[in-house]
Amino acid sequence: MKVFSSAYTFDYSWEECSTANWRKYCPWNDKSTHVIAVDTLSRVVDPATGILRTERLITCHQQAPAWVISLLGGSNTSHVYETSYVSPAEKRVTMCSTNLTWANILQVRETVTYQPDIRASSPGHERTQFTQDAKITAVCGGWQKIRTKIEEASVERFSENAKRGREGFEAVLEMSRRVFGEERAREQAKAH
């Protein structure tokens, strides 16, 4: 098993990040063109805790090496199952995802959190701490050396994708702030 971990501070409030999270794979994000579809399977609010629990199926077009597809079969379309928990009381978003495609060969378990970054925030300038952890395990048979190489290559690719994902989410956050700001200005102008 190999582990990928990263942390990043977004220069946006938790409210902005938790709201924009649902638009992460929209046309505003030119870094996520590999995402073909995001289907919401279920969404429910726990009446006791107020936590919103959402299950989604994310369909992607992944550029797997041709030799992998010819050896293992399949296609360049892959599926990821994601469960997210939004706790307004704790100001915390937790997203857990796992690959469904080729899970009998490689298992990827990712956990992402967004929460206010108290240390980096100041009055009127809130920031959000983003953490990302992924456990990547090659479960295919064969020599340990081969499994290790598969895991190492997967961690490297995961790291590259994570960087693009952060860049894309920054674009979504920027556009969301602008669009919501324009809408607030229109609403205030109507009120006067």
Descriptive keywords:
7 strands, 32% helix, 192 residues, elongated, single chain, seven-stranded antiparallel β-sheet, 3 helices
Summarize the structure in short:
By secondary structure, the protein is an alpha+beta fold. The chain contains three helices and seven strands. The chain has helices at residues 14-20, 66-72, 144-191; strands spanning 2-10, 35-45, 52-61, 77-87, 92-99, 106-116, 128-138.
Protein architecture, described:
With 192 residues, the protein is an alpha+beta fold. It contains three helices and seven strands. A seven-stranded antiparallel beta sheet has the order 1-7-6-5-4-3-2. The N and C termini lie far apart (60 Å).
Kindly report the average pLDDT value: 91
Structural class: alpha+beta
Coarse morphology: elongated
Rg for CA atoms: 19 Å
Order of helices and strands: EHEEHEEEEH
Poorly predicted sequence stretches spanning 5 or more consecutive residues: none
Main-sheet strand order equals 1-7-6-5-4-3-2
Q: What's the helix count?
A: 3
Q: Tell me about the largest β-sheet.
A: 7 strands, antiparallel
List the topology elements:
Elements: E1 2-10, H1 14-20, E2 35-45, E3 52-61, H2 66-72, E4 77-87, E5 92-99, E6 106-116, E7 128-138, H3 144-191
Antiparallel strand pairs: 1-7, 2-3, 3-4, 4-5, 5-6, 6-7
